[in-house]
Amino acid sequence: MKEIQYYNRYSQTMETEQVYGESFLQWAYGNPLGKIALHSFVKRPFFSKWYGHRMDQPESQSKVLPFIDDYDMDAAEFADAPESYATFNEFFYRKLKQEARPVSDAEVVFPADGRHLGFANIDDIGGFFVKGQQFDLAKLLVDDQLTERFRGGSLVLSRLCPVDYHRFHFPVSGTPGETQLINGPLFSVSPIALRRRLAYLWENKRTVTQIETESMGTVLMLEIGATCVGSILQTYQANQAMTKGAEKGYFAFGGSSTITVFEPGKIQLADDLLANSAKQVETYARMGDTMGSIA
After folding, report:
1. What is the pLDDT of residues 130-170, one digit of tens each?
2. Which pLDDT value is given to residue 131?
3. Share in percent of the chain as helix, strand, coil (round to 5)
4. pLDDT-derived band of residue 203, with 50, 70 and 90 as boundaries?
5. I need a surface site. Which of 7, 37, 99, 227 has the fewest CB within 10 A?
6. Catalytic residue numbers?
7. pLDDT tens per residue, range 45-101
8. Per-residue b/e over 247-274, b at no fewer than 16 CB within 10 Å?
9. Are 124 and 164 in contact, with CB atoms under 8 Å apart?
10. Residue 271: partners with Cβ closer than 8 Å, 6 or more residues away
């Protein structure tokens, strides 16, 4: 399997991802028997619900300290001591100290920790993960009016690994509406899976929120479910003004993604994000760091 490499904005170096559950992903998405299991039960919500339930059991607490050690995590960032989490899931959607994620002065910030891809024009995404396969905005949004409004706009895909901080935040200041749920299966959204089928992004269970802003029109934020993601939970209050960097919600156990979509001509994405994405390289950046500015 091709290694997953990304550019770390902070060290300014290329790094190789330590993939959680790598052998399982290779088997499920690359082995013929694995693909049978994938379509028989792995993609189905009950499998992720079962796995999430396991992570809610008291005995799962024993996994916390080894996980922190294996992935060299900085426990000093945690709002609570590692020993205080009663289950692995509590640790998974942990809160951080406020100073651990300062919010940039930029008008647009990353909504989550993760590895990010940015595209100035959605229409140019075709063939990025899978040669010859176009990104299907209409199937992602399942709303003809929204699709026409955002066609030709900009898009940022933020991929969270299990090791990442799993709360997601508002990328812009504005007033968010109610979150719309679009049900679907729960395929992995790891590059291991997306290299084989980009459509998992718009087939998976996902949520869509419209954020009304003063200077950027409407901004869409989507949370994409994935294998072993127990839940996508929203913690914000709809129809109340929110500042960029304010918490929107969190994912229970599993790797997942957010997608942020902007109307055409409204945003200038960060230079490093665009340059790396043009080379098919993700940029690692933390929640609250600069995503872009008003065009």
Report:
1. 666 778 999 999 999 999 999 999 999 999 988 899 999 99
2. 67
3. 30, 25, 45
4. confident
5. 99
6. 113, 169, 256
7. 444 454 555 677 889 899 999 989 988 999 999 999 999 999 988 998 999 999 999
8. ebbbbbbbbbbbbbbbbbebbebbebbb
9. no
10. none
- Residue 84 has which token pair? 């205080």
Structure token pair of residue 81: 């001591």
Please give the structure tokens belonging to residue 40.
Answer: 């028989």
- Cβ-based neighbour number of residue 211 at 10 Å: 22
Torsion of CA 88, 93, 98, 99, to 10 degrees: 60
The Cα 63–Cα 91 span in angstroms is: 10
For the chain, count helices (H), then strands (E): 10, 16
Residue 253 has pLDDT above 80, yes or no: no
Beta-carbon contacts of 73 under 8 Å, excluding residues fewer than 6 positions away, are 67, 163
